[in-house]
Design goal:
Layout: H1 2-15, E1 33-38, E2 43-51, E3 59-64, E4 74-78, E5 95-100, E6 106-113, E7 120-125, E8 137-140, E9 153-156, E10 162-164, E11 178-179, E12 181-183, E13 192-200, E14 209-211
Antiparallel strand pairs: 1-2, 1-4, 1-13, 2-3, 3-7, 3-11, 4-5, 5-8, 6-7, 7-12, 8-9, 10-12, 13-14
Length: about 210
């Protein structure tokens, strides 16, 4: 009986929230380059050298169906580079920047209306990865670390909106691409999952990585 009680206590401790803090092999890490899929609308976060014709006039951010578009890669960085060392697993609640690989601009939002849905405009802003405080998002997930198989949300620190897609489609010159915007309510339109990319392995030499 005593042995059974000890076993039950051990199982309870192992299942206790906050236990098992070591990141798994599928953790998303600082410095990784990846594509992000909106799980509701099955499109990937995308940007390109096309500016909005209204609102801020900054570089537009959209969602695309194609899985092989090179303009859908984003690099995971910290609020500043000292807070997100290369290869370190990203924690749930951590502040990050998402830098568009091909243009060097950061995922950004501000108090401009989005062109199609009149939600909050999301743009790409800055030069060579340097923008401003409106480039910072927190990763919202249910465990201790952001795992690749988990659907997560990105909440903007400066304006409290969630990175979202609700399905509106653009016409020329980016016909068929979806509007990306910020919404104040957490819902099924703002879940994202890590997809294709180069993932730096945690707690290892930065030269070592997984390519997907």
């Amino acid at each position: 009986m005593r042995r059974r009680c000890c076993l039950l206590l051990l199982l309870a401790l192992l299942c206790e929230p906050g236990r098992g803090r070591e990141p798994g092999p599928g953790a998303v890490t600082c410095g990784s380059v990846l594509k992000l899929l909106n799980t509701r609308h099955n499109v990937r976060l995308h940007s390109h050298e096309v500016k909005y014709g209204s609102g801020s006039g900054q570089q537009s951010v959209t969602g695309v169906e194609a899985s092989d578009d090179a303009n859908s890669y984003w690099r995971i960085r910290g609020k500043n580079d000292d807070t997100c060392q290369r290869g370190t697993p990203v924690k749930c609640g951590q502040a990050i920047r998402l830098t568009h690989v091909n243009t060097g601009k950061n995922l950004h939002t501000h108090h401009f209306p989005s062109p199609l849905s009149n939600n909050q405009e999301v743009s790409a802003f800055g030069d060579d990865g340097e923008g401003d405080d409106l480039d910072i998002w927190t990763v919202q997930c249910s465990g201790t670390h952001w795992e690749r198989e988990d659907a997560v949300r990105f909440k903007h620190i400066g304006t409290d909106v969630f990175l979202s897609i609700t399905g509106e489609q653009y016409g020329h010159p980016i016909r068929g691409q979806r509007e990306v915007h910020g919404m104040h309510s957490p819902n099924h339109h703002n879940y994202w999952m890590a997809m294709e990319g180069v993932f730096i392995k945690p707690s290892m030499d930065p030269a070592k990585h997984d390519e997907l």
